[in-house]
Amino acid sequence: MKNKTVHLYSHTHWDQEWYFTSSRSRVYLFNHVKNVIRVLDNNPDFPCYLLDAQTALVESYLQWAPEDRDILCRLIAEKRLLTGPWYTQTDQLVIHQESVVRNLYYGITLSEALGGAMMLGYVPDCFGLGGNMPQIYRQFGIRHALFWRGIADNTLHETEFYWRGDNGEQVFAVQMPWGYHYGGLLDETPASMKAFLDQKMAPVEARSQRAHLLYPHGFDQAPIRENLPQLVAQFNACDDQRHYQIASPLAFVQTLEEEAVDASVLHGELTEAKHSRIHKTIFSCRADLKQMNNDIEALLVNTLEPVLAIGRSLGLEYPARIVADIWKLMFYNAAHDSIGGCNSDETNRDIAARYRQAGDLARNLLEMQTRLISIRIPRAHDFTFTVFNPLTHPASPQITFEAWLPGIPFTLRDGAGNALPYVIEAQRDLTEYVLNQTIRLDPGKPWHKPEKVYRTRLRVGSSTLPALGYTRWHLAFDGDGASPIATDTEGHIDNAFYHIVVEDDGLLTILHKASGKRYSRQMRFVENGDDGDSYNYSPPRQDMRVSSDGCLVSQSRQSDDLQQSLHLEYLLTVPKNLEERAQGLASAALRLAVTVTLQTDDAIRFEVSVDNTVLSHRLCVHFATDIMASVSCADQLFGAITRPVARRASLAVWEREKWQEKPIAIEPMQSFVNLHDHDHGISLHTNGVREYEIVGDHFDTLSLTLFRTFGFMGKQDLLFRPGRASGETVVETPDAQLPGRLTFSFAWRSWSGSFDGSQSARISKNLLTAFPVYQDSDFLNGRLRFCLSDEERHFPRQHSLIDLPSQASDALVSVVKCAERGAGYIFRFYNPTLSSTVQIPAFANGRNVMLDEQTPMPKREALQPADLQTLYVEIG
After folding, report:
1. Which terminus of the chain is less hemmed in, N or C, by CB atoms within 10 Å?
2. pLDDT tens for residues 135-169?
3. What is the CA radius of gyration of the chain?
4. Which residue blocks in 517-595 are alpha helix, DSSP H?
5. What is the pLDDT of residue 754?
6. What backbone phi and psi angles, to 5 degrees, belong to 230?
7. Are the beta carbons of 104 and 136 closer than 8 angstroms?
8. Using an 8 Å Cβ cutoff, are 544 and 528 in contact?
9. Contacting residues for 292 by C-beta, under 8 A, at least 6 apart
10. What backbone phi and psi angles, to 5 degrees, belong to 172?
11. CB burial of residue 776 (10 Å; 0-12, 13-18, 19+)
12. DSSP state for residue 847 in the 8-state scheme
């Protein structure tokens, strides 16, 4: 009698793009799905086939073969063609938390419309798993997960376990230690079939003592094996120890859960690289593309979606399909190879093009929405501005925006008539160009035609903006309210929080006034070689490190009523390539232009511009602390996480045990990282590469990666990744050397007392939120912006959708958006702290729902660390 059941699931892993382009992938996908439909429809004994859990594949196919919609929907409804829950196979460590949620939301929604989603957290090839994925899965109704990368056998010998998220929720999970492609090749020769099966199943049985075993059959872009049912019958005939059956992966995991009630429990993120490469430094690969991704994610989540909610509250229609199309462009780029940047240059150009399209759509939709609101607000002044606050609490930010002004002195006043401080940063006379664009639909109607029009960049110190709403500003020509900009060569700036001094060696000393602590050796740039490829940073075996110590060549200071800035220029002499680096030569100039800015808050803002002419290298910036840390703290998906600053136990054995990668402590973040003790701490908040490391002899220095460059998609025998290449060694990537000007921004904060995750996350949110301004002037209605008809001006002059308290004990808002179903609003809260309970604000007409925005959840008033809760709210 057979005592083992082998569940063989048939699938393909379909990369949308890689060393090949998305166009090639789509064309071959069309042929692949045609064959899958034919095989399943003509072979009722072929139970099911998995299309990589990516609903985008089905959507893509139906765009070219709409005539197959009915048969596809039937096969999906019968659970023979398996799709979902993902839209694309997204990364989980380097993209925004809302991107992960929306990927599942659109994937499940589309799958259900086609006949049903496979409710399994199927992640066959992602480079590490996020620690809060269990609760994200659970809040979509997903209770099981199946994946490949991330666990070493000395952490867990078995393949099955309960995976517990940081909020305590868990899913039953199964690892495929040898990958989704382990059973991609099947021996069809009768004489050798039994020996082949014994050989393949022996490692599986060595890792699992269960009666139910998994055997994944498929590989990248694998064709469906039409004779698989016949082969399985032959397997059963020749193997008297095991019963083989074609099954869905979800059915296998569910069956195994019934058997494995004594399975172990693992917690948090899974990023071990003993048996399968995690490519941890994928976070800094193609910094230019990462920056585009981060900018658009912030624009979508922090600004566009809240402004669309403001519009809905005033009666404007929610453009759901446009928003979905923008997100889907981002999902294609969020797929694990695409967002990693580990592709050919040609493919990465496609990725950049999608970012440009998504960004253009988002910016133009935002402009149209702010315009549709503005032109319905009563106007008493020819130069009027509508200023929006996408945050759920009142804010007084410093806002920089473009305006079209008459070039004469003015006072900028808010809705209450108060004068606002402002600075004119730049202006250009474009009178003839702008006025020739004006279109007067009613030529007899009076309008204001200015004598001059200057395109002007204004920086304004805002008065308090209403929460999740807007107010109006206008120009009054009763004086000159512009703040002059003073320039000198002094090497220090200060505000109420800090005093910053440029030392003789070019490093900074920062005095934290509240505590009296003085932090020296700040902002030290460190350049070294990168012998890696598109997957892994790896230092050269003969490296040469160059720092910015003593490299300051010029400095100046600018100050006005709103801020003070230091402008510093550094010239580093570095090796121009790996060959020079190995010889200890340095013939290239690396020029850095740095602006350090103090405004009225406690964040020191940095902008770094690099003229990159050097090949195969990495640039980091270091900030020393007085904290000798054992762990770092950073934000992750819907929460905060602590990580050891060094992987000491793994480092002691990785070479002897022949790990796939060196277990380095270069780590990802969402937006901030900090070192802290019980008394104080230092945080870095980034809008650039989401990668950091804790360095120094005493692990007391925060290192933020700015960028790294390389020349090949794949290389062999790297110092940090021995053995075979990842990717194609013959594919050169000159674009990945990032020639030209690169710009990065980040902020530094110090605080006294214990670590407050809510405060750090809230500051990141504020720093990454844009406050849109729309100029409502008659002469701008025309070709410059497109011409719109006059509207009745009946909207309020000032409006607030809702004002939520902003206390340290409150949950943080991840997003406010229009509900996809119904006329309400979605407020998603989460707890960003390490150990504190936070409160969810009360809503009179709100109900708790799961991440699908409709399934009810029990009412909760508080959230444990790393927990999240979505509310569907009806207002007005």
Report:
1. N
2. 999 999 999 999 999 999 989 999 999 999 989 99
3. 29
4. 578-583
5. 83
6. -70, -40
7. yes
8. yes
9. 352, 355, 356, 359
10. -85, 125
11. buried
12. E
Torsions phi, psi for 54 (to 5 deg): -110, 105
Locate 808 and state its tokens: 């340290």
Whether 656 contacts 622, CB under 8 Å: no
Sorted by sequence, the CB contacts under 8 Å of residue 551 that are 6+ apart come out as 506, 570, 571, 572
User: Helix (H, G, I), strand (E, B), or coil: what is residue 135?
Assistant: helix
d(CA 74, CA 406): 64
Residue type, 312: R
Residues 6+ apart with CB under 8 A from 468: 306, 309, 310, 389, 390, 391, 392, 800, 801, 802, 803, 816
Instruction: Quote the CA–CA distance of 373 and 357 in Å, as a whole number.
Output: 24
Half-sphere exposure of 649 (CA within 13 A, CB side): 6
Cβ atoms within 10 Å of 501's Cβ, excluding its own: 18
pLDDT tens column, 289-306? 999 999 999 999 999 999
Decide if 360 contacts 295 (C-beta within 8 A): no
> Does the reported pTM lie above 0.85?
yes
Q: What are the DSSP calls for 406-445, one per residue?
A: -SS--EEE-TTS-B--EEEEEEEE-HHHHHTTB--SSTTS
Summarize pLDDT for 744-767 with one digit per residue, the tens.
999 999 999 888 878 899 999 999
Task: Give the DSSP letter of residue 466.
Answer: P
Place 554 in a pLDDT band, splitting at 50, 70 and 90.
very high
Nearest to 638 by CA among 812, 464, 756: 812
Count other C-beta atoms under 10 Å from residue 195's C-beta: 12
Among all chains, which residue has been given the structure tokens 């929405």? 369
Which strand (E) or helix (H) includes residue 356?
A: helix 345-374
Give 780's DSSP letter.
G
Q: What is the pLDDT of residues 443-482, one digit of tens each?
A: 999 999 999 999 999 999 999 999 999 999 999 999 999 9
> For residues 866 and 833, what is the distance between their CA atoms, to the nearest angstrom?
7
Please tell me whether residue 308 adopts helix, strand or coil conformation: helix
Q: In the structure encoding, which two tokens stand for residue 375, read together? A: 């032109």
Q: What is the rounded CA–CA span in Å between residue 552 and residue 645?
A: 31
Q: Pairing mode, if any, of strands 701-708 and 691-695?
A: antiparallel
Does the N-terminal peptide bond of residue 85 adopt cis geometry, omega within 30 degrees of 0? yes
| Placement of tokens 């309400």 in the chain | 824
3-class secondary-structure state, position 391: coil
Mean pLDDT of 327-354: 96
The CA-CA-CA angle for residues 301, 305, 308, to 5°, reads 165
Task: From residue 687, give the alpha-carbon distance in Å to each of 227, 360, 445, 607, 766.
Answer: 52, 19, 47, 10, 12
576-582 LR contacts (CB < 8 Å, sep 24+): 576/613, 576/614, 576/615, 577/614, 577/615, 577/616, 578/529, 578/531, 578/540, 578/615, 578/616, 581/529, 581/540, 581/542, 581/543, 581/544, 581/617, 582/540, 582/542
Q: Are 769 and 359 in contact (CB under 8 A)?
A: no
Mean pLDDT value across the chain: 96
- What is the spatial distance between Cα 728 and Cα 716, in angstroms, rounded to a whole number? 10
Burial class of residue 114, CB neighbours in 10 A (0-12, 13-18, 19+): buried
Q: Tell me: the pLDDT tens digits for 538-549?
A: 999 999 999 999
Instruction: Give the separation between CA 636 and CA 100, rounded to whole angstroms.
Output: 12
Task: Determine the Cα–Cα distance for residues 739 and 577; give it in Å rounded to an integer.
Answer: 13
pLDDT at position 808, please?
60
Give rounded-to-5 percent helix, strand, coil for the chain: 25, 30, 45
Q: For the chain, give me the number of helices (H) and strands (E)?
A: 17, 43
Kindly state the tokens that stand for 91: 């990364």
